[in-house]
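Thread amino acids onto this structure.
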């Protein structure tokens, strides 16, 4: 990932989903971060790094990613040329990857699969209801503070997003943790004016 891709993937929650998928399908999952050779080799300036974990700090997000996925290896590259060198070193003494399998893994990771749902269970519910359920799950994953893991927890405890929105601050914090619970509570109570 380039630095801009990394920031975007953190913001959308996509990196968490990708890391989860890689850890599930590969023996040694790797996240390679490629820096722009014309810029400094750092994620954020030293002045921005504090002693506490902040939801807006990329170093905090990287730390949480590493803690949550201990199997994930993180590599840093100073330039595209360095990335090429790293790839060559990693491929030494290994077979070429199965491109078709890699594409299949990347493209078949549906919301149902990520959330641990069995799509065949919903087959009898009708196509329209399936579309509504899929839209609700997609919406849930786009709410602030919600990851695939917390979405699973919420789906096990709430029948609808309306049920989730009506929960108290304490209920949300107990359900998905203090930080995520507070973010979600604030989001649901935010004025639209």
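Threaded sequence (193 positions):
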């Amino acid at each position: 990932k380039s630095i801009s891709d990394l920031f975007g993937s953190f913001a959308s929650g996509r990196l968490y989903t990708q890391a989860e998928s890689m850890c599930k399908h590969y023996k040694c999952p790797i996240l390679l971060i490629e820096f722009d050779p014309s810029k400094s080799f750092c994620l954020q300036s030293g002045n921005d790094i504090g002693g506490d974990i902040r939801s807006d700090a990329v170093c905090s997000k990287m730390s949480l990613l590493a803690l949550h996925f201990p199997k994930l290896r993180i590599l840093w590259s100073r330039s595209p040329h360095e990335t090429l060198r790293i790839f060559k070193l990693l491929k030494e003494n290994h077979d070429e990857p199965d491109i078709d399998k890699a594409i299949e893994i990347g493209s078949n990771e549906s919301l149902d699969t990520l959330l641990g749902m069995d799509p065949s269970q919903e087959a009898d519910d009708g196509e329209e209801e399936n579309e509504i359920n899929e839209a609700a799950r997609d919406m849930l994953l786009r709410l602030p503070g919600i990851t695939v893991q917390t979405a699973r927890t919420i789906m096990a405890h709430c029948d609808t997003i309306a049920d989730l929105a009506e929960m108290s601050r304490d209920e949300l914090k107990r359900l998905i943790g203090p930080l995520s619970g507070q973010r979600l509570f604030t989001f649901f109570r935010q004025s639209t004016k």
